[in-house]
Amino acid sequence: MSVAANSAPTGQQRFQLGKFLRYKDISIALLTGVLLLICALVNPLFVSGDNIFTMLRTIPEIGIIALGMTMLIICGEFDLSVGSNFAFSAFVMALLNTRYGVSLWLAFAVCILIGIGIGWINGFITTRIGISSFVTTLATMMIWRGAVLLLSAGFPEALNRNQPFAKLFTGTVAGIPAQFLWFIGLAVIIWVVLENHRFGNWTYVTGGNRPASVAMGIPVNVVKTINFMLVGGLAALAGAIQVFRMGSGYSNAGNGLEMQVIASVVIGGTLLTGGSGTIVGTVMGVIIIFAVENILILSRAPAFWFRLFLGVILLLAVIAHQLIQGKKQ
Fold first, then answer.
1. Which CATH number is associated with domain 27-325?
2. Distance between CA atoms of 250 and 113, rounded to whole angstroms?
3. Tens of pLDDT along 119-163?
4. How far apart (Å, rounded) are the C-alpha atoms in residues 219 and 292?
5. CA distances from residue 117 to 100, 124, 232, 234 in whole angstroms, order as listed
């Protein structure tokens, strides 16, 4: 009797632990914590103040786009043109301000509008003409990359990064980089929309069950187009932040960025099939990618190792999600 009584709580504890691990975002938070601990043990410089500051300055340039990409993938689409958008929109901003004397805040507004416009084009072609988002955004990725190369002739465009407006995005607040605070602020806003607003519910249903969303009267095409515009605008914002940080716009900026963004979102637990994903998971996914890249740099490993490790971590993260969360029917 006593043995049975003692064994019962153990089984209950196991059930509670399993239930806890399956709770939204818990598994990716644990994975992130373990990885950060390993990085700190591998190289103590990883947790130095200067290194953490550097990471906080650069994380938003992928993280901000990943927030919008999460919304888009949840609703069943994705965007391969974000890297080209990132370069083109920001280069136009630098060009307007430096070469044509347009005030920086107005040039920045044009940059964001261009990004939103690129997103609208992607959404219109995908939803109204019926071409898959993979083909659409693959084509626009090449179009906007070609456009920025033509516009720049391969040369960078300088921008005075000491202007007060630029410091609004790249200064420091209480020792924390301003761009990281923008990233966290946007993450909170998008999390609130996704988890507590009707549009967020529409986004989940659109990606999870399109026939049901149509039957419910949800404007599926509008939802998808708005999410395309969101990720386009955020890509332009991230590009502008990089130009403010570096003081130049480059035609090759954002090369391969789309793969890192999508990898961050998938590592964070968002399903490419749509209908499932979280903003908290995406933030963790971005941190994982930057932690891996940073520890490789600190260890002076060859640059090509990053791609190898990124692929391995992406695969392991997906397997871990599958094992912890359980196979969804």
1. 1.10.3470
2. 19
3. 999 999 999 999 999 999 999 999 999 999 999 888 999 999 999
4. 40
5. 22, 10, 7, 12
| Cα-based distances in Å from 228 to 81, 114, 201, 225, 320 | 11, 13, 17, 5, 29
HEC profile for 217-276? CCCHHHHHHHHHHHHHHHHHHHHHHHHHHHCEECCCCCCCHHHHHHHHHHHCCCCCCCCC
Other CB atoms within 10 A of residue 287 CB: 20
**Which position has the token pair 């609004």?**
168
- Above pLDDT 70, what percent of the chain? 89
Distances (CA, A) of 312 to 243, 288, 289: 31, 12, 11
User: What confidence score (pLDDT) does residue 113 get?
Assistant: 98
pLDDT tens across 180-230, in order?
999 999 999 999 999 989 999 999 999 888 888 888 888 999 999 999 999
Where are the chain's structural domains?
A: 27-325
Please identify which residue in the block is written with the tokens 């958008």: 85
Give dist(CA 258, CA 83) in Å, integer: 5
Q: How far apart are CA 65 and CA 67, in angstroms?
A: 5
Q: Which residues pair with 173 in a beta bridge?
A: 176
Specify the DSSP class assigned to residue 125: I
CB 253 within 8 A of CB 87: yes
